């Protein structure tokens, strides 16, 4: 009884500790109405926050003030959570401060004189098509595409370059005038207004002023007294050594019918309009085709085989038969290196559980893809909490393989440390490279420590708890007995070669989601939202399961009973094709010429490929395990 009380007391404190950890990781970002009052509101004034410089071409992230923009005297970093840091967000104060619902024009921010270094930095950012990102009331700054109603891009271009038609000399121009549009929703009952949209138009204006420069200088190119807005017809501001650049901005306000609680829906709807529904339907057609093939080739044939086997009257008749039933005494024989297989299956269960819960939460509206930082935080915490299921799956499977208790502890240790250890080590290496290039995309050391704590402090103990529960469960009883004498596998034709089948097996799952990969990678590169991950995940589960079952059945019909590892590798080989496609995407779409950004890209794609291998391999393994237990429990063994 005392032990039970002590166990309950410890578990209670563990739950309290997890909740404290969630709040700690989230960086105290739970504000009323989703607003940080210290950051965004100062009476009737609202402050715009500067964020990172991002490019889908160069892939490196930089601080907003890494180029000569107007800087406050004291730069203050806003509180961000773990998700913000992993995405490379750096929220800082700026000199852009608006008065709520008071339109203004031709506000002078500052004047900056370029030198050789700052001029070179600006030209480099313009060459790599960098966009400057800003935030107002947690809404990202967007640019409407071609004044349309169906497309936004995050952030405005730092500038542009043009080639002179006569001299063919390239000139660089900076966007130094920002025309902001703040949309607000009026609450008639409360008499308040809330921000529901934040847009901008960026122009390059070669400002001209009278006399000498001062804070009261009158700009002849931007006159607020005459209400004359800046237009693109003015001469552009060139970027060159010893050039003076004057930064200005306009602010306009527009009432909107969008409520504050639904302000993200506009952004998501605009992106959803670009979702490749045709390609998704094409993928579903592929899934239906594979399902039909499995139904005709396997289900009908298995039904005929079971009927035939059940008609056998004597042992001599059974021995004359060939096919999958003849290997029934060897099909559940433990595989070679069963310990490593249990480790990978346990890691896959942990990863699968995390993805499944995130998608379920998203379907029921508990998560929004607009809150990417929160989703990343939840994903990491859920992965750590799913460790209990990973440990359970590892121990239960290893016990089924008749593994010893001593080796079970070693298997549990590998489950808790091998997969996350490889991922964390690769992140450290990539982060060191990012630090070396002085990119703002580097994850801070304290955030890396938080990730390490999630792994060692939460995931590892839960894996051991799950393993302890799994080892006490009864082993999975096989529907048929295993013979002590190992049956010899007959010589197989070339098309039944394990390497060939494994590589062929990965093509169909990859092909089913191939059309979506381009849009997923593009969304990641442009920092956009991708809202059909759940559909892609369902397609992936179905195709991995069906192709693994199909190849496993053909293998058993050839009297090859070594299916354990092959079922895992068949579905898992789709990760190899993902890596090939990522390489193709790199050389055909990204135009990255520098070494470090290229290494970073392939490093992160390698991490994604490894995760995909563990996930799809586990799906294929359990699909085959269910299928084989089903068919061998349906026949009479003589």
UniProtKB/TrEMBL annotation:
<feature type="transmembrane region" description="Helical">
    <location>
        <begin position="534"/>
        <end position="556"/>
    </location>
</feature>
<keyword id="KW-0333">Golgi apparatus</keyword>
<keyword id="KW-1133">Transmembrane helix</keyword>
<feature type="transmembrane region" description="Helical">
    <location>
        <begin position="599"/>
        <end position="628"/>
    </location>
</feature>
<dbReference type="GO" id="GO:0072657">
    <property type="term" value="P:protein localization to membrane"/>
</dbReference>
<comment type="similarity">
    <text>Belongs to the nonaspanin (TM9SF) (TC 9.A.2) family.</text>
</comment>
<feature type="transmembrane region" description="Helical">
    <location>
        <begin position="374"/>
        <end position="395"/>
    </location>
</feature>
<dbReference type="GO" id="GO:0000139">
    <property type="term" value="C:Golgi membrane"/>
</dbReference>
<keyword id="KW-0732">Signal</keyword>
<feature type="transmembrane region" description="Helical">
    <location>
        <begin position="7"/>
        <end position="25"/>
    </location>
</feature>
<dbReference type="InterPro" id="IPR004240">
    <property type="entry name" value="EMP70"/>
</dbReference>
<dbReference type="GO" id="GO:0010008">
    <property type="term" value="C:endosome membrane"/>
</dbReference>
<keyword id="KW-0812">Transmembrane</keyword>
<dbReference type="Pfam" id="PF02990">
    <property type="entry name" value="EMP70"/>
</dbReference>
<feature type="transmembrane region" description="Helical">
    <location>
        <begin position="277"/>
        <end position="299"/>
    </location>
</feature>
<protein>
    <recommendedName>
        <fullName>Transmembrane 9 superfamily member</fullName>
    </recommendedName>
</protein>
<feature type="transmembrane region" description="Helical">
    <location>
        <begin position="447"/>
        <end position="467"/>
    </location>
</feature>
<feature type="transmembrane region" description="Helical">
    <location>
        <begin position="416"/>
        <end position="435"/>
    </location>
</feature>
<feature type="transmembrane region" description="Helical">
    <location>
        <begin position="341"/>
        <end position="368"/>
    </location>
</feature>
<feature type="transmembrane region" description="Helical">
    <location>
        <begin position="568"/>
        <end position="587"/>
    </location>
</feature>
<keyword id="KW-0472">Membrane</keyword>
<keyword id="KW-0967">Endosome</keyword>
<feature type="transmembrane region" description="Helical">
    <location>
        <begin position="494"/>
        <end position="514"/>
    </location>
</feature>
